[in-house]
Amino acid sequence: MTHGSTHSQVYRKRLEQLQANLRQKGWQAALVMQPRDLYYYAGTAQPANLWVPDEGDPVLFTRRVHKLAQEATWIDLTVSASGFGEMSRALADLDLSLPSGAILGVEQDVLPYRLVEGLKKNLEGVTLENLSPLVLKQRFVKDDEELARIRKAVELWEKGHEAIMETLAAGVAEYEVAAAMENAARRGGGDGMVWPRRWDSYLPAGGIVASGPNTWEVSGEAMTVTGVGLSQALPWGPSSRRLEAGDLVVVDFALSYEGYHCDMTRTYCVGDPSQEQRDLWERLLELHLQVVDRVRPGVTGEELYLVARGLAEDTGLIYNFMGVGSERGSYIGHSIGLEVDEWPVLGAGYREPLPVGAVITIEPKFMVPGQGAVMVEDDIVVTPSGHEVISTLERELFFR
Which of 142, 174, 180, 384 has most Cβ atoms within 10 angstroms of its Cβ? Predict the structure, then answer.
């Protein structure tokens, strides 16, 4: 087993918390299959299904590469089972079969329909409930090891920023700016992969680069600076448009290190910004700083959004805030961690108080047709006394 005793204790503590949550719900077991969730509890994302009874020891059913998974996980009992039929027979042999009427939690937000049907067939009489809210709420609060990896991802962003500043120039294509960022992050030890939670969400190699008129074009499922992409196969992200002097350029990138994401945004200008562009940036930055200052234990995501919306109204830019016109989002940020779009979205309707240890982003933007867009996004951890901004890169309107 590759994990030391300290790592094993971290994973065991996570799993014991999940078991306590199962008992509180009156559920008899959970089956964890989604790779990010699996890594969170088992310490490996090798192909496997993690069986978690409400009490007692877990079982890791490996679907492939049994030896590698066995060496990687802290879990003592590992069984090779390529399908649910083999898993069901093994559960019977281990005296862990669930009785008829028992409740099993599974990740219904991401599990393919075929797998759900396969579970129903092989675990006859068992009721399936959605496990994901329990898992995501637990994952919302980060431990020290998780925070350390997020901080490392932030360091990768800073390396990417240096590459952007070297690349930014009239005539350079948006995708070339993105490639410079990606290359710097990979050379710095980044994963080169971004994991979204939504089944229909994709990012082109981790991020958005949008310039000039592309900065106010809202495309895709997110109400934000999206860019327009290279084709309708993926109609958001960097395009082949070449930067022009005077362009505002928004770079919104998620980067991951050993599975954990940062998600930051900075705004650039090709050449000296105009006074109008500087004024737009300063109004955004003032709004951003005031919202960040409100982050503390007990505040809700809705409260943060309403503060931001009120400030946008005061600036006279409410119809350019978080989108354009009717294409505007009712949010101000989200959580990050093992996925870039973790629960919750911080916006209208999210009224749960933020807990100590939660890691969130705050990401306001103004998108003005004919002028461009400005956006800033910082990663923040909620601390007992308030908050700490994890993003260490300066908040400036960068230009060269």
Answer: 174
